[in-house]
Amino acid sequence: MPVFTRLRQSSQPDIPEAGSETEQEEVRTEEAETPTPRSRLGHLLAWRTRHPRAARALHLATTALAAALVLGALLLPNTLPAVEPVSFTRIPAEAVIGAVVVLGLPRRPRLVAAVLYGLGLTALTAVNLLDMGFNEYLGRGFNAALDWDLLPDAQAYVGDTLGGGVATAAAVGAVVLVLLVAAVMVAATLRLAEVLARHRTRATQGALIAGTAWITCSALGLTLFGGPIASERGAGALRVHAQRTVDSLRDEAAFVKQAKADTFGNTPPEQLLPDLRGKDVIFTFIESYGRSAVEDPAIAPGVDRTLDTSTEVLTKAGFHARSGWLTSATFGGSSWLGHSTAMSGLWIDNQRRYRTVTAGDHLTLTKAFRKTGAWDTVGVMPGVQKGWPEEKWYGLDKLYDAFDLGYRGPKFSWSTMPDQYALEAFQRQVHGKKRDKPLMSFVILTSSHQPWAPLPKMVGWDELGDGKVFGPIQKAGNKAADVITDTTKSRAEYGRSIQYSVTSLTQWMERYGTDDTVLVFLGDHQPMARVSGIRASRDVPVSLVAKDPKVLEKISDWNWTEGLKPGPDAPVWRMDSFRDRFLKAYGSTPHPSGG
Question: Which of 291, 309, 335 has its CA nearest to residue 494?
């Protein structure tokens, strides 16, 4: 007790002699309100002395929490379905090695090692959380070499869907979360390093036992709850990410050479697409139109009815259709990768490849029409709300973006306008006008873009006007926040969105298509994994519609299914093969370039 008394006395600041008892009392009050660090330490030591059991319980609790945090970070899976209690019933090798290193170091190096270990756990936790997000939405893990460019797009999507305030809060929250995780992990590793050093003998024995147990379990292949007891999950995760980064950098170098080679790069204009001369050709992508929409029992019934009904409607109007499957280069998002893969004949499955190919002069299918000089080429992109330099790469004479279509109605979450309106504006401003040449159109429909709330509904085509008719429909629709967090609702609303987009497109074709209209429409990718499933394929439907029987005869050897709904046994091709198959089917002659 005298020791603590001296400590408290020595921690008191020098107080000038006061002139009265009142002044002395004021000084004592001010001191009590603003304790110095040394006085706080004295109070803590005094509290521990007065409450030894509580102090010991607090000490054990904080140590146990620190150990739980470290073990949890080392054993944390990288997919949400795997986050369950059994995943944490393992012996992590990284924990045993960390303990051995700490026990063998003097004080200062030990503290440095503990801080570095905590930062390493922060990095591991961050990549695991990113993996969870990417697997949940894109059906794949995070790629540190390629995916940082997607984060601004993700923030923009949140802003368009839930509002700018939510997007800003989410971005700030993510940064704060990382800093908080770093602070907590470093504090935890410093705490454990202190405890291990204080109880060096028992800690050494414990590390020896844990190491022996790990080696034994590893050698014998012992498992518990379906997984190995001896774990190296943390090191393995970092190793996978490192290898993924190295492979991505190597792939980029190889793709640069690949993109320079082109089967039709030197084909003269007169030898491109001779069998489609005089036809108005429309390539249309329906957002997130994937195989799950046609085959998933929870989604397909409504979509299949729409496809069957639309097939009948088109048949009565004199049109016929053939359908198959394409395997997309992307999944759950990054639609532009699917668009560019189908049009370029190159497998463009990441942003680096996309930037590489769009910076070059590789022949796109759309550019092939322009190269002939026999078509005017236009793009209709209601989702484009800023400068779009890819317009030149696609070979478009004119681009109609979100601001060029005269829409004055409300946005539907991310989608700037309903598909029905976009198609009617396309007809009014482009397709319905007289011209000297036929038209090649590249149309991107957006109403089926996640989060699928609120959704537009079909209105009379003559009632569309400037789009204000959609105001009451938008107000009565579901809130994005209510749907995006509910898997069951997301699946149901996704199916409804595909029905709406297909109906809009096929009604437009019935209403405005002519004997010379050729429509190719397809999906860009499957919906996010939470809707389509983690193990869902990457296949998307593709259909070709025309009145002229000669157009369909050219693809008779493709063995596609009759109608708008591809059969389960219809051919499945990689999306990058579509360009060359289409060009060859309609009479184009290969003249390779580059390579």
Answer: 291
